[in-house]
Amino acid sequence: MRRRIELADPAIEGSKQPYHEAEGKKPKEAERIVARCIDSSRRLAREALWAVLAELRQRHHDVVGCGLLLASGRALPPDVHAILASHALIHAAEGEMYRDVLVRASEHFSLRVTGVRERDVLVRAAEATGLAAAELQRRVAEMGRPLGPPWRQDEKLASLAAWTVLAQA
After folding, report:
1. Domain edges within the chain
2. CA 169, CA 151: separation in Å to the nearest integer?
3. pLDDT at position 71
4. Distance between CA 5 and CA 78 in Å, rounded?
5. SS3 122
6. Per-residue pLDDT tens over the stretch 59-69
7. How many other CB atoms are found less than 10 A from the CB of residue 60?
């Protein structure tokens, strides 16, 4: 099963890139924008994950956990205003925000989250499954054929993270 979940509410201006939307705003307004978008994204993530879990359980599949691709960057400052002072941090914060809403949604449903840094995912999947990296890459490429396009790099990496979770279960 492949599904795209939406974590940004189109009815909320700037919800796809809340830190970009908050950039240049007065401090209280910036905080309000970011907080509103995070709250909305958390709700959407819970709703989307609930729907996925319901469908998988209806098909008699057991869900053992979630795999999450992690960034390779450094930790963000906790202060919104420090983030908004750097365009590079704005991009990083938005990525972290979406990862965080997915982790919180998974935890809401008592699912264990296995985070894997993107640069390490092939090695981790090979270790977890006992398969050679080249064999995993071949199998991931093959998985895309019956699914049809798009079968992009992010989907291939997510599949490797999922295999890591399944092999550890």
Report:
1. 1-64+76-111, 112-169
2. 26
3. 87
4. 27
5. helix
6. 999 999 999 99
7. 6
What confidence tens digit (pLDDT) does each residue in 56-92 have? 999 999 999 999 999 877 889 989 999 999 999 999 9
**Cα–Cα distance measured from residue 115 to residue 19, given in angstroms and rounded to the nearest whole number:** 24
Give 1-49 pLDDT, tens digit per residue: 788 899 999 999 999 999 999 999 999 999 999 999 999 999 999 999 9
Give the contacts of 163 (CB within 8 A, at least 6 positions apart): 67, 125, 128, 129, 136
Bridge partners of 117? 70
Amino acid type, 45: A
How many angstroms separate the CA atoms of 3 and 6, rounded? 10
Is the bond preceding 150 in cis, omega lying within 30 degrees of 0? Answer: yes
